[in-house]
Design goal:
Blueprint lengths: L6 E7 L6 H14 L4 E7 H4 L6 H17 L7 E5 L5 H10 L4 H5 L2 H8 L6 H15 L5 E3 L5 H18 L7 E3 L29 H9 L11 H7 L5 H10 L4 H24 L3 H30 L3
Parallel strand pairs: 1-2, 2-3, 4-5
Helix pairs in contact: 3-12, 4-7, 4-13, 7-8, 9-12, 10-12
The structure holds adenosine-5'-tetraphosphate.
The site of adenosine-5'-tetraphosphate has 21 residues, from strand 1 and helix 1.
């Protein structure tokens, strides 16, 4: 008997260079399972607009994120890779999702509060971001969304908006589940806080040898402990505790040496992907996006038609 594949989607904002937190939190889990699903991989450039004001940077970042997807091992024949802004169904359903939830509800979003506390401009786009994200997911009847821990609440928000829509208009949209892997939900940055493009505490996923070295050397360490926990936590993304514990025990207190070992391990992990990435041209990226948006629209138009009919805008 033929069984229909479940649907998988994730997306990353083109708000800057991807970092190892994005990779281990969202991209790697996607790469590991996407062939078992009908998969969608989005570049969230409208989301990036909440923080990027430089058109050249947004264009460049958007192409770079797709390049990163391909270099990380995503086959465009087996996943629909597309740019959010190429499909206006996202902004239309995003508006409709906005009308499902209240301002006090959105005011509880941790991500919004954290970003504002960090001095990021509290623009209305940043505030309503979870409802554009709800639309990103709902349009494709998604079952599973691989994300980092910081997105757990946003997935709850997506379910809340979809649930309210379905209760008001009848069962129309599917409620998705997040997929958050143990141990990589929150990858810490060089300052010991969540690694984030906008916090300037990242280890770039496709950084040069020098950039990786510089980032690792800047990892903040606590001089009171035997083991530099911030260094160890990043190292654990690459190697098991069984492999690392004897090394950290043998190098107790020698933080500089441990950072050199971490740099070497990061380099060994990143270099092969970096080589692949260097072969991917802008033209190849444009072709992938052009093919992707057609496939994305073929699915999202069906959902949006049902939504429009349900709400009385048809
Ligand atoms: N530090 C992290 N650890 C684990 N997962 C992470 N993700 C981000 N940072 C970490 C996951 O990466 C995916 C894409 O994130 P995004 O680009 O949509 O935005 P974000 O979560 O806000 O990522 P950044 O790097 O912090 O970007 P800025 O600074 O621009 O907002 C998501 O699944 C996220 O969980």
């Amino acid at each position: 008997m033929l069984t229909e594949k479940k649907r998988l989607l994730t997306g990353l904002q083109s708000s800057g260079d991807l970092h190892i937190g994005n990779y281990f939190g969202a991209l790697k889990p996607f790469v590991e399972i996407y062939k078992e699903y009908e998969s969608f991989l989005m570049v969230a450039d409208y989301h990036a607009l909440t923080s990027v004001r430089n058109p050249e940077a947004l264009r460049r970042n958007t192409l770079n994120v797709v390049r990163d997807y391909l270099a990380a091992g995503v086959d465009p024949e087996k996943a629909v890779i597309f740019r959010q802004s190429d499909n206006q169904d996202h902004t239309e359903l995003g508006w409709i999702m906005n009308c499902m939830v209240t301002v006090p509800f959105l005011m509880q979003a941790h991500s919004y509060k954290d970003k504002v506390a960090k001095g990021i401009e509290p623009n209305a786009g940043l505030f309503t971001y979870p409802m554009l994200q709800a639309a990103d997911i709902a349009l494709y009847n998604i079952d599973t969304v691989p994300v980092g821990e910081d997105q757990r609440q946003h997935l709850e928000y997506t379910r809340e908006a979809i649930g309210k829509f379905n209760r008001a208009y009848g069962e129309t949209l599917k409620e998705p589940q997040e997929m958050i892997l143990d141990g990589v939900g929150v990858v810490l940055g060089t300052d010991g806080l969540k690694m984030s493009k906008s916090y300037r505490n990242t280890i770039p996923l496709f950084g040069s040898t020098e950039e990786i070295q510089k980032a690792v050397m800047s990892i903040v360490t606590d001089s009171t402990g035997d083991r530099p926990e911030n260094v160890y936590a990043i190292h654990r993304l690459l190697k098991s505790a069984a492999e690392l514990d004897p090394i950290y025990e043998a190098n107790k207190g020698r933080y500089g040496d441990l950072k050199k070992l971490l740099t070497a391990d990061l380099e060994a992990f990143i270099a092969p992907m970096r080589e692949v990435r260097a072969t991917i041209t802008d033209e190849m990226v444009q072709e992938v996006l052009a093919a992707g948006v057609d496939k994305a629209k073929a699915v999202s138009h069906v959902t949006l038609k049902k939504v429009r009919s349900a709400i009385g805008i048809d």
